[in-house]
Structures are given as C-alpha cells and as structure tokens.
Structures
1.
Amino acid sequence: MDRRHVHTRTIDIDATASLDGGVAVEAKLCDIRRISFMGLMGGQTINPGLIHDVELGMELDPTQTVTASEFKMHTMPFKDRAETEGMICSDIEPAFADLRGVTYKGAYTTSVLKAVGGPRGCFHGQSLAIGAGPVIEQAFERLPGHEGMSIGRHILIDSYNYGDNGVSMTGVLMDSLVPLDLSGGPIGDVLCEIDLEIALVVPGMVYSQVSASRVDGNSRRTLEEAEGLKGLKMGPGIFAEARSRLAGGDGGLFELLSMMIPVTTQAAITQMRRTGKALPGRGRSMAQIDSCHMWVADGPLDRRVQQVVKERFGKEDGHAK
C-alpha cells in the first residue's frame, strides 16, 4: 500500500513523589508536520517541521489536590501579533494557574474543562492536563514504597494518507516505572503497552478498520474491544460514544484513543483538500472553532478564515455572523 507520512504527535507524562507525600507531574506534547501544507491565514505554504512544543507542570498535595500549575508554549503556530489582531497562542499561559484547587479524587476531567476548556485555555494544554489523570492515579498508588522511582506514560501517534482518500493512524501507549537516576542504565518495568491502528476514508470519517494489541495482558480481549469501535464516526459526541463502546475494559485503550481522536483532522487535512470536502473554514466542520482562546468563534482567526473563504469561493461560510 502506497502511503504518505503526514503527521506525528508525541506525548510524555512523568510523575514523581514529593517529600511531603504529594506528586509532581511534568507533561509535554509535540506535533511534527511531515509534509508541506496550505495555511488557513491567506493560503501561504507552511513547511514541514515542529508545530507545537508545549509543556505543563503540576504539583499535587497528599489529598491529590493541585497546588501549583504552570503551562509553557515553546513552539506555537500563532506568534505574530500583527497577523492576529494582537493575540498570540502564549497569551493563555497564565490561565492554567486556574487548575489550582482541582482535585483528582473529584470530577477531575470536568473540573479541568471548567478551568481551561475551550476558549478559556489551549486545547493542547487541556489535553495534557486530562491525559495526566491516569498517571496521577498510578503515582499515588504505586510510588509509595518506591523511593527514587517515577511513573511515566509515553504516547506516539503517527498519521498517514494512502490512495485517493484513505487515512490511517497508529498509536502506541506505554506506561513504565523507572528510576530517577539513570546513571546505571534505564532499568525499570513496563507496566502496560497498547498498540492501536485505525483506518478511515474522507469525507465519511467513519472508522472502517480498527486493530489493537497489548504486550502486558490479554491481547485477544484488547482486539475484541477495539473491533467494537468499527463504525465510530468523527464528530460531536465521539468521546462519549467511544467511552460507551469500550465500557467494561481496563481503560487503557480508551485513554490511547482519546489522544488519537484530536489528531484525526491533522491526519486527514491533505485528503480533505484533495477530495474538495471540508475545505478550510467551511463552517462547523472546522474543528478548531471554540477549541481554544485563539480559535474562539468570531474571533480574529475565525474572521480571517471567513474572509479567505469568501475571497476564494465568492460566498459567506454561513458560520460567521
């Protein structure tokens, strides 16, 4: 099968025990675009390379409550204030201090979304905060009695285009217990390793083929769970539907899938343009709208895209008012 590598996302989350019985978390996300593509801000060509390099640090006390939170954007797509009416991606960094007071034992994901979800934050920082949840849980369960060790979760997602309208994504999730001091070599234990592969076609965006395996447990059961995702369609409610279909599993497969779903648009963007479907800025099909403070509905980026759409297609998008 002739395929083209288009996008890579890496996520690394590490948790260590604090002296007071709490946990410190360091989480990092990087996006690497493997091909040139047309940008949304006037049709300029954007070269391959690093798109996002962001990190989130959190400290939790022994009650599993966030006492400190800091978000940094080292590489970001929008950093020229002249192009975006004075706004840039990193303006939102201070907002992540609002994660202080969030308790993992409570409704953690809901609390994160309330604090930094949608236009109140950065989608990638939000993803790191939510993705850190299972690592926080493991840290409080496993690290006591394992001084000098850390819990790590490492996710690699690669995306490919094939044929005229095919898209495939492969994801690997690995949890490990490793020593903080690696001077003697990276000796540790792999706690979990899950592989997931998804295929779909544009413009349908329905999972047509799904396969999964795991190294550390019942691979057959994991495959059966993954096959239940066939027919899942990208769009509103996909996370809830996926969680429902994977109910009864150990959670690891859903946690990997939830990190792969947001990459689907990046994976499919060249195929969408090839087929003439879901062109940039075409209404609510554009997943960026209200996903972060930069892409707030009717904000500078949204208005700019609406202008580009009008110039190219001679009509309003129907989204902007």
2.
Amino acid sequence: MKIFIISDIHSNYDALASFSEFIKPMHKTGDVMACLGDIVGYGPNPSECISFVRKECDYVISGNHERMLLDKGLREFANDRAQRAIEWTDRKLSAGEKSYLAGLPEMLDIESRIVLAHGSPVEPDTYILRRAQVFSAISTLRIMKRYICFFGHTHIPGLFDEESSYYYRENERIIIKPEHYYLINPGSIGQPRDRDSRGSFCLLDDEMCITFFRFTYEIDRVYEKIKNEGIPSELGERLYYGM
C-alpha cells in the first residue's frame, strides 16, 4: 500500500486538479491519500477543494486556517491578508462544509507507527523549522511510540531524521530505516514557499521509501480568480515566486 501525502492546499483547486492528473499513472487500487490540513484559506476555490478532499482522501486533519475559519477569535493572530482571505472564505462556505471542517481531528494515527500533524506533534500550530523544534518533535514521537510524523504548515518539503539532519531530493527514493524517527513535510499543494512555484507532495511506498514530487499548474488562472474575487492580489502574486 502506498500513501500519498498532501498538505496546505489553500483553496487552490487548479493546483489540486493538476496534482490529481499527475498521480494517475502511479495511483493504484488500495493506495491511500492523507491531507495534513489547511484545505482552505488564501485561494479562490474553497468549496471545490473541500469536495475533493472529502471524496479522495482517506485521512484528513485540520490546519490553522480551518481553525481560524471556525473560531473568529484566532484571526487576530494572522496577518491582514490572511484575515481578509479567511473572512471571504467564511462568506462563501455553506453550513455543511463548515460542519465537515469542524469535525476534523487536529492529529491522527495511521496504522501503529505513523502520526499526522499539521504543524508539529508537540502542538498543532507550531512550526518545525529550527533544530530545537525538530528535537522537541522527535522527543514527542518517542513518548507517543510513533516513528514517523507527517507534518505541513511551513509549506517547505523535506525530511528531518532523529539527528535533525535535513534531506530533500526531488524524484529520488529516500529509505526510511526501521526503528528510526522521522519528521516528513510533503510541501504545499497550493502555495509553496521554498522559492519553487511548482506544487509539492510526497509518497510513502510499500517498501518504506519516501519520494518527493513536484508538478506544474496554471498559476495565471488562479491569479485572475483571486483578483476577480477581491481577495488580496498579493496572495496570487506570491504563487509565481514560491514564497
């Protein structure tokens, strides 16, 4: 069984649709898909993205943008552009769509050795960027008796091992050693921030190897939708630069 890991879609359905086409040759019966949250926020097609995730993803957790959508008190901690985008999203979504998002867990186990978290297994909205944050997350995995944590939130793909060493190679299989601890970020489907405008995801195959993939999509179309909907245009402009 292969597990496709996606995160941080951010209402970018054009990117999500391109991802879906990209994986068709490698997606087989019995494979599963996991989404690490931030389905909504920033982009122009929240309903379409929610519909895709509900239909195609076997495991789904919430992200900080889902929590901001559902709890207005959390919006004060976001920047102005993020606030305006989530307020727009709030007006667009139906009660049923919000109810679905409200029912998503903040963390979720897959089998006996894998856990899904949006930010970190330590705390859902914590960023894993620095060495201390890596060691804290690894310590938490030891307590949880889980060896692999898939996480998102930073929009930066890559793998940290238990020594806090970082690895990222596109289209190359990275061996996951038994009884070793790993933090793995698939990158962002809809808003990459590693200075690469292509969408990003990763795959855990049935031989316990991780592969990171990139795919292209029509950024111009998303940018025009963002402008036409009155969402801050900077949120479309950044898509061109992967920032």
3.
Amino acid sequence: MNWQPIETAPKDGTEILMAVRYPIDKNIKGVWATFFAYFDTAFEEYPNGIWAFDCNLPIITGTPTHWMPVPHYTQPTTES
C-alpha cells in the first residue's frame, strides 16, 4: 500500500489512515501525524462535510494531505 493524494480518498464514510500536516511557521516544515479518519457529512457546522477523527471529532486544524486504506491486521496465532 502506498500513500495517495487526499483528493482521491473515499468520501463515503470509509475509515482510512490519513496523514495530516501541522505547520509551525513558514521556516519550519512542521509536524506530521497519522490518524484513523473518515469523511463525515453529519456535522451541522460543516454542511459540505469534513474529515473527522475516528472518535467523531472534525479535523479543524492541520491539513490532511495523503491517505491509504487501513491495513488488514491478522492476530498472530500461538501453537502449543
């Protein structure tokens, strides 16, 4: 899986991994963070929808830039 531009991310409520840039100032690249997120159209304050954290909070600071599908995780098995 590779990171893809945020413009190509699904906006149907599918949970994704999202890279968000938090700039500090024009001379510093800032901080990057990765979150589970989804596009939400249920917030009254954002009638056109907004990216939200998986805990139902809108992402109102930072700039979402890239996304990828949530990787499938398989719990390791232990053999006795």
4.
Amino acid sequence: MSSYKFTTGDIDESISIMREAAQWLNDKKEPMWSFDELNRDVLRNPAQEFIVMYGDNSESIATLLLSYEDNFFYPDIPRDTSGFIHKLAVRRKYAGKGLTNRLIEYAVSICKEKGIASIRLDCDPHRKKLCAFYESFGFELTDVKRINTRRLGEIDVAFYKYNFD
C-alpha cells in the first residue's frame, strides 16, 4: 500500500473495524471492549471525530475516535485543550504494517489545525505490547491509577500524553 485516504464521520465503518478487533482480542482470551459499547449511541459520547483510514483498494483498514474532552478519565483537562484518542483499531489483515502510526499522525494534524498541542490516551498498563507501542511513538506515561468503572468495577489505567508543540 502506498497511499491512504482519511475520513471523519464514517461511524458504521469505524464500528465495523472496532468490532473485528474486539472479536480478535476475545478469541485470544484478551478482551478489551464489550460489543455492547461498540454502537453508535455509546460511541458518539464524547467522540467528535470517527477517523477511518482507507487503503489503495478503498477498503477501510484502521480507525480511532478523537475527542476534545474526556470527563471520565481526564475531568481536570478543559475542553479543547487536548485531543483524546480512544478505540484505536486495525483490521487484522493489515496489522503490523505501521498503519497505526499514520493514523495517529493524522489525528495529530487535526489537533494542530485546531490549535491543540497534545494528545492523551489511556490503556491497560498490563498490556505491555500496547504500552510499548505508545511509548515508541513518543507518548509519555504520566500516571497509573486504579479507578472504578460501572461496567468493569475497579481497573488499572495507564495515562499517556504526547506533546507535539
């Protein structure tokens, strides 16, 4: 693949990619997302941008949600001062090809256009490969906390920030 197209707003395509990734993780006995949360109503809040990456053959290959506020994980960060990445996913047949870097770079470009100088994300600190990927991109671990969620109860969360100013 040599060229990529990025779109925002392809909610159903974005959800399709996330569901494929969620199924793969479930099959590996490493569940991350519940299928109940991978629907339009749940994902629209707080996501502002459903970014989908397409390949040369016009097939959707990767997605992420980008929002500009996150009152659950980052209640102290004012709206429109940071981008927040959630639900980064790649179709399995395209995994391991560096596409996530390009997808995050696209999210960074959107944030720069809006005058935002950082992106944050959260993940399970026990998923060492995922944490290593974010750190290799340039995200810095800012904190690890145990938090209480309605769906999962108490969970450990690693908080990352990437400054690009």
